[in-house]
Amino acid sequence: MMKIERVQGVVSLRRTIESGTEEQRQAVKRIIDDVRNNGDGALKKYTEMFDGISLDTFAVTQEEIEEAYWLVDENMVHIIREAAQNIREYHERQRETSWFMTRDDGTILGQKVTPLDAVGLYVPGGTAAYPSSVLMNVIPAQVAGVKRIVIVSPPNERGTLPAAVLVAACELGVQEIYKVGGAQAIAALAYGTETIEPVDKIFGPGNIYVALAKREVFGQVDIDMIAGPSEIVVLADETAKPNEIAADLLSQAEHDERAVSILVTPSLQLALKVEEEVEKQLAT
């Protein structure tokens, strides 16, 4: 439900950078230590505790991937393929290359770019499916030349991952996909278990427990960043399209209950139309 407020003058919007409560930080440390010491046994315990499902194996099977293609609309598969092509073309242009030069005095200067051997990519679960997280993290790693790419994501109540996530991973040729989430997944990527070999760097967003876990293992492995709750501010006047604004607002609001999506507009009529469009898109 959107909340519409009339404001005059300058409004101050402040967000507090969250570092978690002491209880949350200690819980994350215990989970990481447990996974580090007990491996798959700890993963199984926390998957039952937090995801409500008992798994015999964490690795996604070929049968699960084949089933995912039956569950995903053909148009969605086309969208995933088109998006993958666009993302790859963009990152190909960003790729750094090695170069060397020899000066007149014989001095050799240059830059050697060496890809990481292995990266772990965390794909959030919970309120929605995020094939976009697969595309946006896997493709840059592939373009960079990373040899081993590992995806971890929390299982749903059926003990599998969202079909769109599996299809996106399969389309990109990812061979290692594990049904494990939360701080325990980050610990597994950092220290390894009987099933999951450790990686060099961890990428991807998650909830507060995932963020705290990434902070805790930094140094053992590299990480991309400490991602906080998603937020977006859209500035628009009466000429803007309500359906596009609603889609932008929802694209961030779906990530986390603490996410913030704001529309700033001089047009009350636009605000009302966007509110109506948000409800319409939520219903579909």
Mind sketching the topology for me?
Elements lengths: L21 H17 L1 H12 L10 H10 L2 H21 L4 E4 L5 E4 L6 E5 L8 H14 L3 E6 L9 H9 L4 E4 L2 H10 L9 E3 L4 H10 L4 E2 L7 E5 L6 H12 L6 E5 L3 H16 L1
Parallel strand pairs: 3-4, 3-6, 4-5, 6-7, 8-9
Antiparallel strand pairs: 1-2
Helix pairs in contact: 1-2, 1-7, 1-8, 3-6, 4-5, 4-6, 5-6, 7-8, 9-10
Could you characterize what this model shows?
This protein is of the alpha/beta class and 284 residues long. The chain folds into two domains: 25-91 and 113-223, Rossmann fold, CATH 3.40.50.1980; 231-283, no CATH class. The chain is 46% helix and 13% strand. It has ten helices and nine strands. The protein has helices at residues 22-38, 40-51, 62-71, 74-94, 131-144, 163-171, 182-191, 208-217, 242-253, 268-283, and strands at residues 99-102, 108-111, 118-122, 148-153, 176-179, 201-203, 222-223, 231-235, 260-264. It has a five-stranded parallel β-sheet, sandwiched between helices. A two-stranded antiparallel sheet has the order 1-2. Strands 8-9 form a two-stranded parallel ribbon. β8 (231-235), α9 (242-253) and β9 (260-264) form a beta-alpha-beta unit. It is globular, with a radius of gyration of 22 Å.
Keywords:
alpha/beta; Rossmann fold; 5-stranded parallel sheet; two-stranded antiparallel ribbon; 10 helices; zinc
Described by strand count, sense and barrel closure, the largest sheet is: 5 strands, parallel
Low-pLDDT parts are none
Shape: globular
Question: What is the CATH-assigned architecture of the largest domain?
Answer: 3-Layer(aba) Sandwich
Number of domains: 2
Strand order within the widest beta sheet: 5-4-3-6-7
CATH-defined topology of the largest domain: Rossmann fold
